Amino acid sequence: MAAIDVVNDAGLGDDDDFDEAIETDDPALPEGRYLDREISWLAFNQRVLELAEDETIPVLERTNFLAIFATNLDEFFMVRVAGLKRRILTGLAVASNVGRAPSDILSDISGTAHDLQNRHAAAWENLVRPALAEAGITIVDWSSLDEGDRSRLTEYFQQQVFPVLMPLAVDPAHPFPYISGLSLNLSVRVRNSRSGRQEFARLKVPQMLPRFVPVELVAGSGAIRFIALEDLIANHLGDLFPGMEVLEHHVFRVTRNEDVEIEEDESENLIQALEKELLRRRFGPPIRLEITEDMDDVTLGLLVRELDITEQEVYRLPAPLDLGGLFSFSDLDRPQLRYPKRLPTTALQLQPSEPNGKADIFQAVSERDVLVHHPYESFATSVQAFLEQAAADPNVLAIKQTLYRTSGDSPIVEALIDAAEAGKQVLALVEIKARFDEQANISWARKLEKAGVHVVYGLVGLKTHCKLALVIRQENGRLRHYSHIGTGNYNPKTSRIYEDLGLFTADDQVGKDLTRLFNELSGYAIEKKFKRLLVAPLHLRKGLLKRIEQERRNAEAGKPSGIRIKMNSIVDEAIIDGLYRASQAGVPIDIWVRGICSLKPGQAGLSETIRVRSILGRYLEHSRIFSFHNDGDPQVFIGSADMMHRNLDRRVEALVRLTDPGHLAEIEQLFDMAVDDKTSSWHLESEGTWTRHSVDEAGQPLTDLQDWLMVKTSRKRRARVRR
């Protein structure tokens, strides 16, 4: 799921973003001031592709970036393109913050996506595949194999592949079969040797088998050869169609609309409604057909006709299709072809006082707020340890937590179960509408309910996206709140590759805020304001706009000002316009974005003081930070929200304000490094193009922010050990 999460958190958005774009009519701001969100997302995926093309990156990591690009693009079609097409076909309004017709949007997407998929295929064939071969990892074709290789593979085919294959004929007695989304298929045209009649068949490549089959491991050298499963099958079609002459065979792949549309009715069981919709998802209409470049016109015509797609939706590519299958190379034991292995450290305040001892999380947090930075600092020894200690502590009376995406065999879920079984009050708010994790979250919800956990699903019409945990502990005859507010999911697996921040605090005001918020989430509505939190959907946008406006006023009054924001995506027109107005007043603004950016920086008279940077690399930049100079009294927030309509209007999101001077200095230093011209990053130019800056004028590599952070964090640990 890691690659899918890349795109989920890159800001694809819900389909109803299309008809909820905020109307903006400010005569002080020019028309055409936004970049198209769909093209901006494709530009993000191009940045992923550029990492795959980078010869300075270890080759298995480049292979992984190719796979991430492919799966990202799959979901882009399944969600965004599918949503656009559905709205056009049904006559629903499609709002565009760039004022273009829906058909023009689809045309631009198609042209850009075609170019990117061709570039992606070329990166594999001309750059990454040869680099793998140099390292002793070769992907071969059947035609290059000798008799001994073919004999071994034929035996493998007969024993492991042939029994699970299901050829489906297409003739008057057999209608054209259903083609499942994202499945790899062989189209086969055969001729009956007796009648001379030509027939068509579809053969699905089994998804449960290895996509790349080992041909031979060269003993002692570590060299290994693979053949694509579809190539192996294609060269044994005679076994599947005995007595028939195989005329043509080609590989194709269909992408379908797999977004879930659920009408929430308070009178209907939400889980049951969602499960029905998940069944319908499998049969969404096709919106992309990928074919190998050698496919003949007869076969293509049949597929286009039966799948009812347009020429614009056909993507003719060199084999192999579905380079998402390259994820399988992640299992290869070739550490020299990967990023150097790095282990996260334990945050200083959470380190045990005695060697090999166990830290007391409550004691540490009671003394001072703790800010943890994953994956540089360990999730296991911070968030996981916090919940496990809470589950085992007899003084803990209650635990309340939100769960948006978690992982299989999650220690977080197990801790909640242990707490419930120990007699504690446990509330879990499980967001079962988290896209593509719906079924997994339903399973977790039922498992928690069976253990006695109070499970709720949030508010009708809203997704609960905030990352919150609250522990109520009895100390010296009174109750004390221990809170965690994070920017990322409670997922131990993704915590190793996602960059996120999390605040632990025993601050009574934060605890009271969270108590009220959890009560409202398990109740009926979110209406009240909070003290140290900004909460969507009612107050988050207003709170941020208020602080942006204050920076504008400070600048106009000649006072120091500044805004720094880090997020996955920025699309919301009201926020962008607020930043434009602040820039017009002279406020220096740094935007650090991973995915979509609809803001145009560096425009004369509009955004001259705005810089936009993007950093992609070994870890997925995922934290959200909002920092305001506030005339020397910084207001800095971290949390779960991106600047998108869905986050601000249709989700429960929460930002918490940092108050510890050390934490404020840490955030300031992080931004200083990220926007420094000596740090490797992509710069968004005023006309909307992204330019990578990875080397200096002398050709030397610029500083890698993630490497710098890992070294910095490790040094802090060593300094603690020496003390």
TrEMBL record:
Cofactor(s), by name: Mg(2+)
UniProt entry keywords in alphabetical sequence: ATP-binding, Kinase, Magnesium, Metal-binding, Nucleotide-binding, Phosphoprotein, Transferase
GO MF annotation terms: ATP binding; metal ion binding; polyphosphate kinase activity
Domain (PLD phosphodiesterase) ranges: 617-647
Enzyme Commission designation: 2.7.4.1
A GO cellular component entry from the record: polyphosphate kinase complex
An example Gene Ontology biological process: polyphosphate biosynthetic process
SUPFAM superfamilies attached to this UniProt entry: Phospholipase D/nuclease, PHP14-like, PPK N-terminal domain-like
Binding site for ATP: N72, Y498, R594, H622
CDD domains: PLDc_PaPPK1_C1_like, PLDc_PaPPK1_C2_like
InterPro entries cross-referenced by the UniProt entry: PLipase_D/transphosphatidylase (IPR001736), PP_kinase (IPR003414), PP_kinase_C_1 (IPR041108), PP_kinase_middle (IPR024953), PP_kinase_middle_dom_sf (IPR036830), PPK_C_dom2 (IPR025200), PPK_N_dom (IPR025198), PPK_N_dom_sf (IPR036832)
Active-site residue list: H465 (phosphohistidine intermediate)
Amino-acid positions noted as binding Mg(2+) in the UniProt annotation, renumbered to this chain: R405, R435
Reactions it catalyzes: [phosphate](n) + ATP = [phosphate](n+1) + ADP
Post-translational modification: An intermediate of this reaction is the autophosphorylated ppk in which a phosphate is covalently linked to a histidine residue through a N-P bond.
Function summary: Catalyzes the reversible transfer of the terminal phosphate of ATP to form a long-chain polyphosphate (polyP).
UniProt record similarity statement: Belongs to the polyphosphate kinase 1 (PPK1) family.
Name recorded for this polypeptide: Polyphosphate kinase
Species in which this protein is naturally found: Okibacterium fritillariae
Protein encoded by which gene: ppk
